[in-house]
Specification:
The structure holds two protein chains of two kinds. Chain A has helices at residues 27-59, 81-87, 94-125, 131-141, 146-163, 173-176, 184-195, 199-207, 212-223, 225-241, 244-249, 258-269, 274-294, 296-308. By secondary structure, chain A is an all-alpha fold. Chain A has a domain at 94-308: MetI-like fold. In chain A, helix 3 packs antiparallel against helix 10. The radius of gyration of chain A is 24 Å and the shape is globular. By secondary structure, chain B is an all-alpha fold. Chain B folds into two domains: 1-37; 53-286, MetI-like (MetI-like fold, Orthogonal Bundle). Chain B has helices at 2-37, 53-59, 62-94, 100-108, 115-125, 132-139, 151-162, 167-178, 182-190, 195-222, 227-232, 244-254, 258-286, and strands at 39-40, 48-49. Chain B has a two-stranded antiparallel sheet. In chain B, helix 3 (62-94) packs across helix 8, helix 3 runs antiparallel to helix 10 and helix 10 packs antiparallel against helix 13 (258-286). The radius of gyration of chain B is 24 Å and the shape is globular. Classes of the chains: A mainly alpha, B mainly alpha. Chains A and B meet through helix 1, helix 3, helix 4, helix 5 and helix 10 of A and helix 1, helix 3, helix 4, helix 5 and helix 6 of B.
Chain lengths: 309, 292
């Protein structure tokens, strides 16, 4: 398991190095509250882990073992077959939901990353009248809660379906198409990163006869891999976890995403077979956790940067 | 002059995806919803103009006020709790200690859990009959709690649950803490400030822009609370966990009162605008921006 280290040097924009001289401290007193802090942290972490442990434990139990009094942490008997039952379930088709989610997520990630980078380049590197105003406009759209927009969006998609040959409602398009027009959050993040790349690099290429698009595509993008991976990761997470969007725009069960399918599985179960429900929740969560452990640094850097700037 | 036009054309070319998206997926929907808010509209027949009628009805709608109060009540509990816990955790996790990276990871992990999984895990933990939390309470000799099934307990329980997911803000605060100049702590220590004194007089003022940003986002975020109550309580018992976003959803997609729901959406939008504006006005006075 790698570890979260938050240092300003790791945040996306390089920070001015501050002269932090080594500090002389009284060692004894310092140690005392270090240990007190450690004790507190260990205790709190145990509490934060408990839901995970309980989920894992329940997912490995036989159904009559799930509600013992007092609660048992170690499953007896041990039933790893629960996961298999969930995957093969007749009430919910998790393999199909996984495929649907992956299709939507892939299109969302590609669209968000590509289009946000293009727009962010415009905001960061091209000076023109009205840029500041448009940028402020874009930032303010981040403040609009989705429920405010969901109803008219639904009507817009319905209108497009009625008046053009492109059917929108009941297809995946309302879920991934908007991503191809950039997301304010990602544009902002990438713009902050582009700002830190010196203009001289583009200037040199321009003198050599490189077009603006060429500078963006061949110079900026390759330099921006860390920021692009943050955007890709976040948009993947967003697509994977999105519930309200699929709830509004998908109609047939065979189109369900994992989030929607898991909820449908729960209401079909009526909340009885908690071992299966926990196994399903764990399976839905697992890819995100794995992704996080593979790309932890990228992740933390992204959150830290967007939160601060 | 010609160069200006050229630059503008170039800039707008790069901005075009966002501009089109902004028009189609934000500006037009907002404009449309204002128009709908002045109409009676059930998706099947064309909208019929009725003026401010929806707004008047909304003003007299008991359930609307109940949902508004619920949303505020939740925010009043979840916001301070989240702020205190996440700040406290960030300060704790900033202390040098063995295994610090692992502790940080553990605190952050719940923020990764997909929201439906999160709802199911907590439904199971909070299960009044065989949930783990009641098992623990009983083992400690405390009375069992009905948690979500009791009208008075339901909302505090949801607020309590939200504390599990503070990992995101902890990371943001931790990053903010790295930017507090070490000299300030040394100066405070030389002046004889205690640990708490240093937190109060150095850390908090220096972190205030970050805290402020998180607060504004959290207040606006309360309007988006939907999935957790939708899945866990469906607004009940007796509408005690019925949030504004749920009432909006039900009006629009269950009762097909698109005009009425649009009026609600507009009131929420105005609230967000006021909050953001107010927040930025206040920030000038209360929030300390380093070097500005």
């Amino acid at each position: 398991m790698s570890a979260i280290e938050t240092k300003s040097a790791q945040t996306i924009s390089p920070q001015a190095v501050r002269g932090a001289a080594p500090v002389k401290r009284q060692p004894r007193r310092k140690h005392a509250h270090r240990w007190a802090a450690l004790a507190a942290v260990v205790l709190i972490c145990a509490g934060y882990l408990l839901p995970f442990i309980w989920m894992l434990s329940t997912s490995l139990k036989r159904v009559d073992q799930t509600s013992t009094d007092p609660p048992q942490i170690i499953p007896h008997p041990f039933v790893p077959g629960n996961f298999w039952s969930v995957i093969n379930s007749k009430t919910a088709h998790f393999p199909l939901y996984t495929r649907n989610t992956l299709v939507i997520a892939a299109l969302t990630v590609a669209g968000t990353t590509l289009s946000s980078a293009v727009v962010a380049y415009g905001f960061a590197k091209i000076r023109f009248k009205g840029r500041g105003f448009l940028f402020a406009m874009m930032l303010s759209t981040m403040m609009i809660p989705f429920p405010v927009l969901m109803l008219p969006l639904f009507i817009v998609f319905r209108f497009i379906g009625d008046h053009t040959p492109i059917q929108m409602l009941g297809t995946f398009k309302p879920l991934w198409l908007p991503a191809w027009f950039g997301s304010a959050f990602s544009i902002f993040l990438l713009r902050q990163f582009f700002m830190t790349i010196p203009d001289d690099i583009g200037e040199a290429a321009r003198i050599d006869g490189c077009s603006e698009w060429g500078i963006f595509w061949r110079i900026m993008l390759p330099l921006s891999r860390p920021a692009l991976s943050v955007v890709a990761l976040f948009s993947f997470m967003w697509a994977w976890n999105n519930f309200l969007g699929p709830l509004l725009f998908l109609q047939r069960p065979e189109q369900y995403t994992l989030a929607l399918g898991l909820q449908a599985f729960q209401s079909a179960q009526g909340g009885t077979d908690w071992n299966l429900l926990m196994a399903a929740s764990l399976l839905v969560m697992l890819p995100v956790l794995i992704l996080f452990f593979l790309a932890q640094k990228t992740f933390i850097r992204g959150i830290a940067t967007t939160g601060l700037k | 002059m010609k160069r200006d036009v050229q630059q503008f054309a170039k800039g707008m070319a790069f901005l075009s995806p966002w501009t089109v998206g902004f028009l189609v997926f934000t500006l037009v929907p907002i404009g449309l919803s204002f128009y709908f808010s002045l109409t009676k509209f059930n998706l099947l027949q064309p909208p019929k103009f009725i003026g401010m009628h929806n707004y008047v009805d909304l003003f007299n709608d008991k359930l609307f006020w109940k949902a508004t109060w619920n949303t505020c009540y939740y925010t009043l509990m979840a916001l301070p709790a989240g702020l205190l816990v996440s700040l406290g955790l960030a300060l704790l996790l900033n202390v040098e200690m063995p295994g610090r990276g692992i502790w940080r990871t553990i605190i952050f992990m719940p923020s990764l859990v997909p929201i439906v999984s999160c709802a199911l895990i907590w439904m199971w933990l909070l299960n009044p009959r065989s949930g783990l939390l009641n098992g623990i309470l009983q083992a400690m000799g405390l009375p069992r709690s009905p948690w979500l099934s009791d009208p008075n307990w339901a909302m505090p329980t949801l607020a309590l649950m939200s504390v599990w997911g503070v990992g995101n803000s902890v990371v943001i605060y931790l990053a903010g803490l790295q930017d507090v100049p070490q000299e300030l702590y040394e100066a405070a220590e030389l002046d004889g400030a205690s640990v708490l004194g240093r937190v109060w007089h150095v850390t908090l003022p220096m972190l205030s822009p970050v805290i402020f940003f998180n607060l504004v986002m959290a207040i606006i975020g309360a309007l988006q609370v939907f999935e957790i109550p939708y899945i866990m309580t469906n607004g009940g018992p007796t509408h005690r966990t019925y949030f504004l976003s749920m009432y909006l959803y039900d009006n629009a997609f269950i009762y097909l009162q698109m005009g009425y729901a649009s009026a609600m959406a507009w009131i929420m939008l105005l609230f967000v605008l006021t909050m953001t504006g107010l927040a930025f006005l206040v920030s000038g006075r209360l929030v300390h921006y380093q070097g500005k």
